[in-house]
Amino acid sequence: MSRRGAAVQLGGDTFPLEVGVAKRTVFHARGLTRTYRVGDVEVQALRGIDLELAAGEFVVILGPSGSGKSTLLNILGGLDAPTSGTVRFEDHDLTGADARALTQYRREHVGFVFQFYNLIPSLTALENVALATELAHGDPHARAAQDPAEALRLVGMGDRLDHFPSQLSGGEQQRVAIARAVVKKPDVLLCDEPTGALDFETGKLVLDALRRANRELGTLTVVITHNAGISAMADRTLRLRSGRIVDESRNASPVEPAALNW
Ligand SMILES: Nc1ncnc2c1ncn2[C@@H]1O[C@H](COP(=O)(O)OP(=O)(O)O)[C@@H](O)[C@H]1O
Ligand SMILES: [Mg+2]
Question: Per CATH, which fold does 24-259 belong to?
Fold first, then answer.
């Protein structure tokens, strides 16, 4: 089902869903800072970030190396905590949460995709994805996972179910990693330079897989990148520089990943 094609019937007239229906904000961050201390050296990786992210949107966070992108993504994903400021995901205050609460938050709500795919070499594509559903098994809050083969079909890997990672190209491994991240149907998919290790054409296939997961599962998808070309496919782009958001733009007509250029 395409979210974009969705419509509502109101009193005999049909309206496209985007019109007049504000998307629900799920992340609220205010005044986030993150200072790293290494010996006597202090690095201010984030210097006061305010942001809101809405359910279902595809957001690119664009910035040069060292601008604080990974730091911000790790805080949104509950992998790290800010030095000051607040961040909330729906009714979860991530700032005040202890390690146990953050683990539960990640397990129930977040999928991660990193630059390197981190698949288990001794398991097939299907087994790598199935493992993610088994880890959630026994969690009373876990929602019904997708069928692992279905998740692989969604990312265009339905004909590689029994391949081992060593039998797959980098782009194919990354698509398996995306299937593994979305099989639990997370509310949010956080991607740190997902095409960073890939050539241009392969990168576009990976972005297409992310776009499909975003549309078909309605997953809020955040892609951080230093590659400005990717922002053409986003609903919204935030530009990060030296730990601050310096620009925000909305894209009325995002292009399909296949049409990207960089
Ligand atoms: N664990 C860490 N310890 C110390 N400094 C760090 C750590 N992680 C990141 N930094 C520093 O914080 C700044 C922002 O890093 P990062 O968020 O990784 O940026 P980006 O992902 O945009 O390249 C950089 O100057 C980096 O050197
Ligand atoms: Mg980074």
Answer: Rossmann fold (3.40.50)
Angle at CA 234, nearest 5°, toward 230 and 237? 85
What lines the ligand 1 site, CB under 6 Å? 36, 38, 43, 45, 63, 65-71
Domain ranges of the chain: 24-259
| Closest listed ligand to the CA of 64 | 1
Tell me 120's DSSP state.
Answer: -
Name the one residue in this structure whose structure tokens are 């740190």. Answer: 192
Please, how many CA atoms are within 13 Å of residue 97, restricted to the half-sphere of its CB?
25
Q: Mean pLDDT, to the nearest integer, of 78-96?
A: 95
Residue nearest to atom 7 of ligand 1 (CA): 36
The two tokens of residue 210 are 């992310």
State the ligand closest to the CA atom of 43. Answer: 1
Q: What is the mean pLDDT of residues 49-67?
A: 97
Above 90 in pLDDT, residue 55? yes
Nearest-10 Cα torsion for 82, 86, 90, 94: 40
pLDDT in tens, 88-137: 999 999 998 999 999 999 999 999 999 999 999 999 999 999 999 887 66
